Amino acid sequence: MIITLSPSKGQNFESAAPTQTYTIPTQLSESEVLVEQLKKLSKSNISELMSISENLAELNYQRYKDFKTPFNEQNAKQALFAFKGDVYSGINTASMNQADYDYAQNHLRILSGLYGCLKPLDLIQPYRLEMKTKLKTNKADNLYQYWGENITNELNDALQNQKEKIIVNLASNEYWKSVKPKNLDGKVINVAFKENKDGKSRIIAIFAKKARGMMADFLIRNRVESVEGIKNFDYADYKFDKKVSNDDLFVFSRKQPKPLSK
């Protein structure tokens, strides 16, 4: 079983990772091509390309100027611990042990606009480059074209080592669009998280994002390898909703939590 997640714009490179084990991104040479293109852009170019403020443009302009290889523990950090935000707040890495990290390394993949298909312990440097960014290179007009079949091929390589050739897709639509599902050598199970209130059921983005991280946490800790095992996810009162689920879409529902009091 392979789990796919999106990266996050929020990143933490200040605190140390809880493990010294690391790997180098498989597609780093492709990342370097993108960085060389990004280094040619002015701050205003970056602001316009990424639709971000002047301050964020300044930050990322400098990030790409500072980007250098080879990656090591002094200038980079493992992806699983570098990303932060709603999704990654659902993964309690602080309470995991080395066996959990090793299992995640074999079963979790993070889809990235800059790095392609990342393993959790792959080193990365600070960046911002969403998959939807229309960054032009010599071979493509945008990142979807740039990565082409590469991310799909990486997922297929990972599937070859799995007991069950299943992909649990917990990535956002923006990042999943970088994958060619018809060319995958396994079954894809999409997952939705819904909140029930006043007789209505709906997806609320902030809850759904954290739930994606929580499910990744659940699958890793419990060493889930089967389709049936996915249905046992029960963090934060979510339960598998058999009535609205099918073979390709697993829906988990719960009573919508009350807003936190101020």
Describe this structure in words.
The chain has 262 residues and is α/β, with parallel strands linked by helices. The chain has one domain (2-27, 78-255). It contains 11 helices and 10 strands. The chain has helices at 28-38, 43-50, 54-66, 79-82, 86-89, 98-107, 143-147, 150-159, 173-176, 205-221, 227-230; strands at residues 2-5, 77-78, 108-112, 116-118, 123-124, 166-169, 187-197, 200-202, 239-240, 249-255. Strands 1, 3, 4, 6, 7, 8, 9 and 10 form an 8-stranded mixed sheet that branches. The protein has a two-stranded antiparallel ribbon with strand order 2-5. Strand 7 and strand 8 (200-202) form a beta hairpin. It starts with a strand and ends in a 7-residue tail after the last strand.
Main attributes of the structure:
two-stranded antiparallel sheet; 11 helices; 8-stranded mixed β-sheet; 262 residues
What low-confidence regions span 5 or more consecutive residues with pLDDT below 50? none
Specify the structural class: alpha/beta
Number of domains: 1
Report the oligomer: single chain
Q: Characterize the main sheet.
A: 8 strands, mixed
Q: What distance lies between the first and last C-alpha atoms, to the nearest angstrom?
A: 41 Å
Mean pLDDT: 96
The helix fraction, in percent, is 25-40%
What portion of residues belong to β-strands? 15-25%
Q: What is the general shape?
A: globular
Number of separate strands = 10
Order of helices and strands: EHHHEHHHEEEHHEHEEHHEE
Number of helices: 11
What is the rounded Rg?
19 Å
